[in-house]
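Retry 2 of 3 after timeout on previous attempt. Resubmitting structure tokens to design endpoint.
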């Protein structure tokens, strides 16, 4: 009776820690992308490259990046830029239990264009 409960606690704790790490990684990537894309002369391509650098260093390769509005050279200073980074949480679990199966983790960052 005690062993199944202990297994659920151990695997649940590990999976929750992985979810927190993944969410924090998305927050960091969102901040770095927002910082990159709001610089004068920056492009969404440079920002996407930065997202890939940050997330691949943390082992996250399957993600979605959304920058709103679309940044061009004509985007005015002072424009609020929203960066949304999203990933599927299915792959973060270990063992037979999958508490985050079919869940999506996301982080959104706002920054003003310089």
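Retry 2 succeeded. Sequence:
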């Amino acid at each position: 009776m005690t062993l199944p409960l202990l297994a659920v606690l151990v695997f649940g704790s590990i999976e929750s820690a992985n979810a927190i790490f993944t969410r924090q990684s998305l927050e960091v990537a969102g901040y770095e992308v927002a910082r990159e894309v709001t610089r004068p002369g920056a492009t969404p391509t440079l920002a996407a490259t930065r997202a890939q650098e940050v997330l691949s260093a943390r082992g996250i390769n399957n993600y979605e990046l959304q920058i709103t509005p679309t940044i061009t050279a004509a985007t005015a200073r002072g424009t609020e830029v929203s960066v949304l980074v999203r990933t599927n949480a299915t792959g973060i679990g270990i063992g037979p239990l999958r508490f985050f199966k079919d869940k999506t983790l996301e982080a959104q960052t706002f920054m003003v264009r310089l």
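Attempt log closed. The two ends are 60 Å apart (CA to CA).
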